[in-house]
Amino acid sequence: MRVDKKTLHRLISDKLHKAGLSREHADIVADVLVHADLRGVHSHGAMRVEYYSERIAKGGTNAKPDFKYERTGPASAIFDGDNAAGQVVAKIGMDYAIDIAKESGVSVVGMRRMGHSGALSYFVEQAANAGFLGLSVCQSDPMAVPYGGAEPFFGTHPIAFASPSAEGRHVLVDLAVTVQAWGKILHARSRKEQIPAGWAVDRDGNPTTDPFRVAALNHIAGPKGYALAMMVDILSGVLLGLPFGKDVTSMYNDLTEKRMLGQLHIVIDPARFTDREAFLGNITRLMADLNAVKPATGFDRVRYPGEGSLLRRRAYEKDGIEIVDEIYKYLVSGVIHRDKYDNKGAFAV
Question: Which domains are present in the chain?
């Protein structure tokens, strides 16, 4: 079914507030989830609410965090999130990063001890909206086999990047270093759909198209994706003095346990490197040049990164956001959670 974005935001915020978050924090999480659904990335949207609600209700997300911010240098800082909702920590951390970049030209802000922050595109878009370049990386729990390995070690370890342009549109990159994010598997489960071959393997290491038989994900481009995963783990885990590799906590193992995740934001003011207006104009030209490339058979045109999500957002804002019926029924119900996710393996089974 389809729901307008204001209604969806209210339903999500109400559910998270009822689970225990302050209204301010519930609204921030709802902002990020609706942002994902508007882009058509439903794996990081409303379908996550029941899991978040169960973790909040069971104490695994700190509903009353004691935030601590430490400026560690002219362009660096650490933000301790006290295991609050990840979206809240990542949003506030990006606000800090933008403020430092206004002063210093560049900034690097590490966020320590936080929960799952969802779609990283939201946070780098904060930077682009302020006229800056934004880059963000974060950890996730072990669920992908390293190149040459037979058991999970790193997570999906997403990377996001955004750049403003002269016309207000953004280049927007948000990708997992696995062939697909775990949320895409969850989305397929919610729709009772098969997944494409190559996304994942079963317990015996064999390729599977059954989302319920997934035991590990595959990295993109074999050793290249695996190398990127290690880079992200170092930047958002080892660098911040947090658990890393196989020691990153599982999303579903114990919902009373704090996640202790890390995330790193980098913000760059293009005016410190070139003329601002020339930079913005060149980004617009780069977008147009890509659109002008001769399309391959089966494509209407080449789209710049982020263009597809922009078109989906415009359509959803006009016609309403597509939500799985079961998820909508949960959102409008009086149920907080159904003890659905606790004490499960990395793949919620």
Answer: 2-274+310-332 (3.30.1370.60)
